[in-house]
Amino acid sequence: MPTERREDHGYDELRGEGWARLLAAARRRLERTGGALDGDIGLTGPGEAERRIVIGITGRYRPETAKRLAVPLRDLDGYLYDRYGTGLLRTLGRLHGPLRDRPAERADEEARREQALESAHSSRLAGQGWFAAWLDRIAADGTLTRLVRRGNAPLLDAAVRVLERLPGDGDRVAGSPERSPAGLPLPVLAEWATGDTKALVPGTPLEQLVLRALAQRTGGGFVVPRDRAGRRALWESAGAIADDLASQVLVLNIGAEGDTVVCDWLRDAADFGIPFRLTLQQLATDPVVPAARTIYVCENPAVLRAAAGELQDAGAALVCTEGVPSAACHKLLGDAVRAGARLHWRADFDWAGLRITADAVARHGARLWRMTAADYTAALDEGESTPLAGPPAASPWDPGLALAMEASGSTVMEERLLPALLSDLNRA
Q1: Degrees (nearest 5) of the Cα angle 43, 46, 47?
Q2: Do 158 and 193 contact (CB within 8 A), yes or no?
Q3: What number is the average pLDDT over the span 259-287?
Q4: CB burial class (10 A; 0-12, 13-18, 19+) of residue 261?
Q5: How far apart are CA 64 and CA 20, in angstroms?
Q6: Cα separation of 120 and 127, whole Å?
Q7: I want to staple 345 with a disulfide (CB 3.0 to 4.6 A). Which of 151, 198, 257, 297 is the partner?
Q8: Which residues of 391-400 are buried (b: 16+ CB within 10 A; e: fewer)?
Q9: Measured CA distances, 344 to 270, 318, 365, 378, 424 (Å)
C-alpha cells in the first residue's frame, strides 16, 4: 500500500528525533556536488531513532549492531517525494533555506582570484623578483583566497598601488606626491594610493599586505616583524615614514654647522664626548650639516658606547645605525655627504650586515671600514660564532667576503673587532 502523501508541507516528522544528522549529511553532499542525487550518505554510530528511519527509507532491515548506515540519495529523495511531494532538494530548501552551489561558488572564486592576480601582474613592478615572489606566496598560502571570500579582493589592487608609489625603488609614478628629503609620510601615501589617510595604520589588512611585500623586498623572507620598531624600519627601507619622532639616529662627536637649537645641542654634546640622539622631525625642521668631514658608521650601540667611554671627545665622529639605518640616519648622512663629508661604513658580518653595507655604498658612496674578507677571516679565529641565518647576500665591494662567510657559515658581530675599531677612531 503506497505511503500517504502529505501536501501541507508541515515537515513535523523531519524536525523530530533521528532526522537531523541525516538531512545535514544530505545537504553537505548536495552542496558539494551541485545537487547531484548520486551516491550514498552515511551515519556513523547511529542511534535507535536513526536506524528506524533508515529502515523506513530504504525498506531494508538494519541490525542494532550496525556501526554505520548508508542511505542512497535517490532512496531519500523518493521517500520525501512520496511523503511530502517535494523531493530532497525542495524539502531541504524549505526546511533550512536554499542550498549553496559550491562548484559554482568555487568557479566564481577562482575567476575572481585569477582576475585579481592578473591585475596585479600588470603592475610596473611585475618584472621585479621580490614582487613576483610576494604574489606567488599570497596566492599559495591562502591569503588571496581569504580576501576573495570576504569580498576584500580590491585590497590587493590597493596594496599594489601603495607599492608602486613608495619612493624607495625606481622612478616616482607620474602624479604621485613629491616627498621631502626626509621621506614620504604614511598618511600622505595612504591618501594618494587609496583615498583614505588611515588605510595604512598599524593592524589594518592593507598594512599587513604591504609589509609582507616589503619584507620580501628587503631580503628578510616573508616574515613581518611583530614589534613596532621593526615595522617602522620596513617602511623606512622603502622611503615611507611611519613616525618622524620615533625615527632616530645615535651619534657621537658629530658637531654641526648652523645657527639652530639642534645644532647648538650637537656642538655641546660633541664638546663633552656625549652620545646624542637626533629625531627625523628635528632633522627635517632645522637643517643640520655635520661639521665633521670624515664620519665613521657602525651598526651596534656597544661600539659607540665604548668609544664614548674610552675616547670621549677625542675620538672621530661616529654614527650608529642600530641595525637597519632609519630614515633619520639616512637623512643625516645624506646631508653630510652632500656637504662634502666622507663616510667609512661597517656592519656585522652577517647577511643583513652585507645588505646594509651594500645599500650604503650605493646610496651614499660610502667607503668600507674593516669590512673585507680579510677582516672577517681574521676575526673568525678570535672566538665562537653563531650560525648564519636567513637568505644569503652579496658583497659587491669584495666578492670574496660573501664567499668566505658562506663557506664558514658563521657570523661575526662587530663587537669582536672593538679594539681595532677604537684604535681607528682614536687615530682619526
Answers
A1: 145
A2: yes
A3: 90
A4: exposed
A5: 19
A6: 11
A7: 297
A8: eebebebbee
A9: 19, 9, 9, 20, 11
Q: Under a CB-based contact definition with an 8 Å cutoff, are residues 277 and 326 in contact?
A: no
Cell output for 383: 672566538
Contacts of 290 (CB under 8 A, 6+ apart): 254, 255, 256, 257, 266, 317, 332, 335, 336, 339, 341
Residue 357 CA to residue 347 CA, distance in Å, equals 7
d(CA 280, CA 327): 7
Question: Does the pTM of the predicted model rise above 0.85?
Answer: no
Please report, as a single letter, which amino acid is at residue 245. L
Residue of higher predicted confidence among 78 and 100:
78
| pLDDT, tens only, 116-149 | 889 999 999 988 889 999 999 999 998 998 998 8
Map grid coordinates 627635517 to a residue.
284
- C-alpha cell recorded at residue 417: 673587532
What's the one-letter identity of residue 268? D
